[in-house]
TrEMBL record:
Subunit structure: Part of the 50S ribosomal subunit; part of the 5S rRNA/L5/L18/L25 subcomplex. Contacts the 5S and 23S rRNAs.
Family named by the database record: Belongs to the universal ribosomal protein uL18 family.
Originating organism: Psychrobacter nivimaris
Origin: domain of life: Bacteria
Any one Gene Ontology cellular component term annotated for this protein: cytosolic large ribosomal subunit
Designated name of the protein: Large ribosomal subunit protein uL18
Record keywords: Ribonucleoprotein, Ribosomal protein, RNA-binding, rRNA-binding
Any GO BP annotation: translation
Length: 116
């Protein structure tokens, strides 16, 4: 039987290994049907430098499961990364397709100063 989550995590494993080899900060995205989350994780994987999600009080009032809210999360994570002194990251989409909300978040982060 096909397990959708296991297949997604299997796809993500190779990307994470490559990012670990590069030794750079990692912008990780997780999406559910209702929310989207983004974190910037240190190269050793042990520390979260910045985070943003649709659970933040400023974004929670409207719809949280659409591309517009993902764009807002992308802008917020870019601002928080710049405040922490990070401009260059590797994009870890966690096995999700680069489409829809994941793409909107990535493009908004790029437009606001993050380099992938």
């Amino acid at each position: 039987m096909f397990d959708k989550k296991a297949a997604r995590l299997r796809r993500a494993k190779k990307t994470r290994a490559h990012i670990r080899f590069l030794g750079v900060h990692r912008l990780t995205v997780n999406r559910t049907s209702k929310h989207i989350y983004a974190q910037i994780i240190s190269p050793n994987g042990g520390e979260v430098i910045a985070q943003a999600s649709t659970l933040d009080s400023s974004l929670r009032s409207g719809a949280t499961g659409n591309a517009d809210s993902a764009t807002s999360v992308g802008q917020m994570i870019a601002e928080r990364a710049k405040a922490a002194g990070i401009t260059k990251v590797a994009f870890d989409r966690s096995g999700f397709k680069y489409h829809g909300r994941v793409k909107a978040l990535a493009e908004a982060a790029r437009e606001n100063g993050l380099e992938f």
